[in-house]
Amino acid sequence: MLLAGALALAGCQTAPYRKLTAQQVETLRQQGFHLTGLGWELDLSEKVLFGFDDDAIPPERQSNLRRIGQALLGAGIDHVRLDGHTDDAGSTDYNLKLSLRRAQAIAGVLVSAGFARDDIEVRALGMSRPVADNHTPEGRAQNRRVAIIVTVD
């Protein structure tokens, strides 16, 4: 279990909590974010979903992520948190590693959009926080994701 704890914290930087301006909130809304208990989170329809046992981001999705990253930076939003997730197939340790690779892949795209790597918090959550039923193919597909979150106070 020590490995699980280390992976959950791998690549983490403490993202500062801050208040957002009206312009920043509008930019978040325009880019498909909505306010949740975790902060401003990219809507499920815009979330980065992955294939089974996959951490590759299709080129067209990379372009969209760069656009979102540049819009956030243009509004002065320069810190994000990336929560990597998996479905429940496979072992806990394997899924933690896979969710970390997924979040790191998204981080790489955001760095290419202009984010500083130190301003991206990466968390590996594995299969611990499903958003859909893992007993259906559709549910498992929705759980294979990386959530992009802008934290606020």
From TrEMBL:
<feature type="domain" description="OmpA-like">
    <location>
        <begin position="38"/>
        <end position="153"/>
    </location>
</feature>
<dbReference type="Pfam" id="PF00691">
    <property type="entry name" value="OmpA"/>
</dbReference>
<dbReference type="InterPro" id="IPR006665">
    <property type="entry name" value="OmpA-like"/>
</dbReference>
<dbReference type="InterPro" id="IPR050330">
    <property type="entry name" value="Bact_OuterMem_StrucFunc"/>
</dbReference>
<keyword id="KW-0472">Membrane</keyword>
<dbReference type="InterPro" id="IPR006664">
    <property type="entry name" value="OMP_bac"/>
</dbReference>
<protein>
    <submittedName>
        <fullName>Cell envelope biogenesis protein OmpA</fullName>
    </submittedName>
</protein>
<dbReference type="InterPro" id="IPR036737">
    <property type="entry name" value="OmpA-like_sf"/>
</dbReference>
